[in-house]
């Protein structure tokens, strides 16, 4: 309270017959501190400014002209200035980015979409913005957001699985985010689900991400149609129109997802799995195959685990980054 983060609500009076100080409920002073959260994608920055309750006050999208690290860091500094310029009580920035991230050091070990390796993003962003910076894997940050404000509220153990440019997973077990001994726990996209499947950029073969991510689906749809310019919207239209080979591409992706999700619930035993990401735009094409394979592969009572389909905008991913920075502010004290 002395630092101004909490304040007393009007007294509720004494409870029962006991003597002593009247009950004075406490509340968070939301405007005591502001936080910036930035989600970095291959093509743009999505940024939000939140208050101490992690409520979004404003948001920005900034296209990226290049994946070059200095240019991206400069863009982060620009969007921070746009959102927080002139606000004296903005000291913390959270950045979420896909791939192998070492939160403790702020190092992006590997991001396949930006083609980054060993980028000291926290240090670079701190120098560019003057803020205290926390860098986290994007799906882990989203899991924190879901734990605080979404489907994870009230659940002690749950998973967030994202489907889109990649396939990721954030795990909350017994109320705590699980990152594992090497910081890459939950990489469901690199579970092998097909011994004869395609090669993956991770150097493995038959990985879930190499079969069921958006790029993988587009790649297979182009192969079966012979249309080198086909994109995901066109593939979805062809499948909805009944093109048998393209429909089978989505069926294969759905079965692979079902195996991956079954492996997840068999290993971790979450109360629920939240499925989200831009790939949900095509969910109706592979939902049947996901659920059919999941039900066949989930062991015993694990098959009762609900799959919660929850479309979320990228602003929510950025809010997760802000929540991680808020969390870091208080856990570091």
From TrEMBL:
Transmembrane intervals: none
Keyword Nucleotide-binding included in the entry's annotation: no
Protein name in UniProt: Putative NBD/HSP70 family sugar kinase
Highest classification ranks of the organism: Bacteria, Bacillati, Actinomycetota, Actinomycetes, Streptosporangiales
Gene3D superfamilies with a match to the protein in the record: 3.30.420.40
One GO MF term attached to the UniProt entry: kinase activity
Species for this entry: Nonomuraea jabiensis
Keywords attached to this entry: Kinase, Transferase
Family that this chain belongs to: Belongs to the ROK (NagC/XylR) family.
Lineage top rank: taxon: Bacteria
């Amino acid at each position: 309270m002395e630092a101004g983060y909490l304040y007393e609500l009007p007294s509720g009076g004494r409870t029962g017959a006991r003597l002593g100080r009247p009950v004075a409920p406490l509340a968070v002073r939301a405007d005591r501190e502001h936080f910036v959260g930035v989600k970095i994608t291959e093509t743009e920055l999505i940024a939000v400014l939140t208050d101490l309750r992690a409520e979004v006050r404003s948001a920005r999208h900034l296209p990226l002209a290049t994946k070059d690290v200095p240019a991206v860091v400069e863009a982060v500094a620009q969007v921070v200035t746009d959102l927080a310029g002139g606000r004296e009580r903005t000291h913390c920035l959270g950045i979420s980015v896909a791939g192998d991230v070492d939160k403790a050091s702020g190092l992006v070990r590997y991001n396949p979409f930006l083609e980054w390796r060993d980028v000291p993003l926290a240090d670079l962003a701190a120098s560019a913005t003057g803020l205290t910076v926390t860098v986290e894997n994007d799906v882990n940050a989203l899991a924190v957001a879901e734990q605080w404000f979404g489907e994870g509220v009230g659940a002690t153990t749950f998973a967030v699985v994202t489907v889109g440019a990649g396939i990721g997973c954030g795990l909350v077990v017994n109320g705590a985010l699980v990152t594992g001994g090497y910081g890459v726990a939950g990489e469901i996209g690199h579970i092998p689900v097909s011994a004869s499947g395609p090669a993956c950029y991770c150097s493995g073969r038959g990985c879930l991400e190499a079969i069921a991510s958006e790029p993988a689906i587009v790649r297979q749809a182009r192969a079966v149609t012979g249309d080198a310019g086909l994109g995901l919207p066109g593939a979805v239209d062809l499948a909805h129109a009944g093109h048998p080979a393209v429909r089978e591409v989505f069926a294969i992706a759905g079965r692979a997802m079902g195996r991956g999700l079954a492996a997840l619930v068999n290993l971790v035993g979450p109360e629920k799995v939240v499925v989200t990401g831009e790939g949900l735009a095509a969910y109706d094409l592979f939902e049947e195959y996901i659920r059919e394979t999941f039900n066949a592969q989930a062991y015993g009572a694990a098959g009762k685990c609900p799959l919660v389909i929850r479309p979320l905008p990228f602003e929510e991913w950025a809010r997760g980054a802000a929540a991680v920075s808020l969390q870091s502010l208080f856990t570091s004290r």
